[in-house]
Amino acid sequence: MKKDYFQHKAENYEQDKNRVNTVGNIAKAVLKVLKLDKTMQIMDFGSGTGLLLEKIAPFVDRITAIDISSSMNKMLDDKRDNLGCELEILEIDLAKARLDQKFDGIISSMTMHHIEDIQKMFNNFHTMLNDNGVIAIADLDIEDGSFHTEDTGIFHFGFDREMFLDTAKKAGFKNLNISSACTAVRADAEYQIFILTGNK
Fold first, then answer.
1. Domain assignment of residue 130, yes or no
2. Is residue 10 part of a domain?
3. Number of domains into which the chain is organized
4. Strand ranges (DSSP E) for 48-162?
5. pLDDT for 12-54, tens place per residue?
6. 3-state SS of the chain: helix, strand, coil percent to 5?
7. Three-class DSSP category at 174
8. Which is more confidently placed, 3 or 85?
9. Close Cβ partners of 24 (under 8 Å, ≥ 6 residues apart)
10. Which residues contact 35 (CB under 8 A, 6 or more apart)?
11. Where residue 6 falls among pLDDT bands split at 50, 70, 90?
């Protein structure tokens, strides 16, 4: 049985103003770099309570939310009626299971550092996209491990940007770009967050 690292955090997850502001800034970065429209069906990988997708929802037709935490998915489901698009929630581990669906875009906020084999995940993303489908993946620059104050299943203390971009390139993505998205504030420290974009 898999461990729900967020079981005791889900209900209070959005009470952290710094977290909410960070994801809000990531959402602004996504909307700035992706051309979205109301015909699109996209996937939010590591959707959590929906902080990212609720900002993206008004601009697309349908979002498939992917998260392995049942407690986080419950919090997202409670928002369903207030979103600007159709919502599907799937509680699956994409690091282990295949999803036979195709999307016009894949977005993700602060989830890849929870994935052990990011090359495999980028390969999966490429397979799940329609031709010319887009990605917008936001995560941490390399940090000293202090970003997480407790174990929530961490495999990477951030990423080297060039390595991250090269991993996406090896998966087959084109027109890749990586740039600064925002700064996350935790206690007295600041952490840089980048956003990677590209298309199939």
1. yes
2. no
3. 1
4. 62-66, 86-90, 103-109, 129-140
5. 655 667 777 898 999 999 999 999 999 999 999 999 999 999 9
6. 30, 30, 40
7. strand
8. 85
9. 51, 55
10. 134
11. low
Domain region containing 149: 17-199
Asked if residue 3 is part of any domain, the answer here is no
Question: Half-sphere exposure (CA, 13 Å, Cβ side) for 106?
Answer: 30
pTM (two decimals): 0.90
Classify residue 4: in a domain, yes or no.
Answer: no
Q: Kindly report, residue by residue over 33-42, the tens digit of the pLDDT.
A: 999 999 999 9
Q: What is the CA radius of gyration of the chain?
A: 15
CATH number at residue 37: 3.40.50.150
Q: Distance between CA atoms of 129 and 171, rounded to whole angstroms? A: 12
Per DSSP, helices labelled H in the chain are 17-33, 53-56, 70-77, 118-128, 161-170
